[in-house]
C-alpha cells in the first residue's frame, strides 16, 4: 500500500496525466483490493484502499471523475447520487462506452435495480447512434433486458407505478421501432424469437394493466396498440405462415385498444369543444381502421376457424355500435346513417347490433327522424327475416316506426304503417296458436295497436279514404280478440264503423230533385 501511495503522490505532484483507460484500470484495482479486505473483515485496511483511490489524478469535468463518484455512491449505498453520477458520466467529455459496461456490472452486483435501469438505458441510447446489424441485434437484446428489469421493479412493494408504467411503455415503443427498422432492412427474421417474446409480453402487460394500473386507460390502450404492431411485424417476419394465434391476438389487441379509448372518452368532460371534437374524430378513425383490419382477417378464412370467425364478427358489430356512438357525439348524422346502411347488408348477428344502435339514436334529441326511422325499420326487417327478435322488442320498435310514419301523414307513409300494423296483428295471431311460447305480446302494446288502428280508421273515413279506413278498422277489430273485454269492444267498433259509413254514404248521395 505504501508503494501505491508513493506512486500516486508522485503523479499528483507532476504534470503527467493518466489516460481515462489507465485511470479506470487503476481505480478498479484499488477498489478490488479494498473489497478483499472488506470481505475479510479487515475494516481499517479496506478503508485505506478505498481512500487511496482519491489520489488518482483526473480533471473534475471528465467522465472518469464521474465514474469515481459513481463508485463512491454505490459503496455508500446512495442510489440517487449514483444515478446522477452515471448520467453526468455519459454527458461528460472523454466518455467511453466501456465505462457503462463496468457501471452495469457494478449496479447489478450491488442490487441497485433503479441504477441498473438508468445505466442500461444510457447504454441503449449509446447504441442508437451507431448503425450495423450487430448493433441492431445488441440493441434488441438490451431492450429486452430493460423491459424485464422494469417489470421486476413494478412488482416490488411500494413501486412508483405512475413513473414506471410510462417508462415500460416507452421501452416497448423503442423495441417496436427497432424491430420495424430491422423489418425495413429485411432482417426481422433474424430476431423473430425476440419479436415473439416482445409481443407476448406487451400483450400480457396490457391485460394485466386493465385491472392493476389505476387511471391508466390511455396507457393500457397504447400498450395494446404496440402489441398489435409487434404482432404485425412478427407475422411478416416468419418464413412460414404465422400461427393462427398471431392473427387472433392481432384482432384482440386492436379491438381492446379501440374499446378502451371509447370507454375512456365517455368519462372525459372538456370545456374545449374543438379539442373534444378532435379527440372524437381521432377515435372514429381508430374504429374505422380497426374494423378494416379485423375484416381483412375475416375475409381470409384460412387464418381463423369457425369459432374464432363468429367471435371476430361480433367484434365488428360492436365497433359499429361505437361508430354510431361517436358519430352522435359529433352530430355527424351522415356517418350514423352510413353505419346503419352498412349493417343492413350485414349477417345474422346484426339484429342485436341494430337494437343497440337504435337505443343510441332514440335518446339523441338532435337525431334526424330519417336516420332514426331507417335504423328502426332495419331492425324490424332483420328480425322478421331471421326470426331473431323477441316479441316484446318487436312490439316496441314497431310502435316507434308507426308513430313516425303516422306523424308524417302522407298516403305512402300511412300505407306503410298499416302494413306494419297488419304484420303485428299476424304476430298476435301466430302467438295465440303457440301454446309452448314463453313470450307474450305486451298488453300495453296491444292497447296501443287497438287505439291507433281505430283512431286512424276514423280519420281516414272523415277524409273520404274508404279503402284505407276499412283496413284500419279491420285491424282494430282483430286486435280486440287479444285485449280484455275484446268482444264488446269489437261490437262497438263495428257499430261505429257502420254508423260512420252510413253517414258518409248519405252525405255523398245526390240531393232529391
Automatic annotation (TrEMBL):
Which domain of life does the UniProt lineage start with?
A: Eukaryota
Keywords attached to this Swiss-Prot or TrEMBL record, sorted alphabetically, are: Meiosis
Tell me the Gene Ontology biological-process terms attached to this UniProt entry: meiotic cell cycle; regulation of synaptonemal complex assembly
State what protein this is by name.
Protein ZIP4 homolog
Species: Grifola frondosa
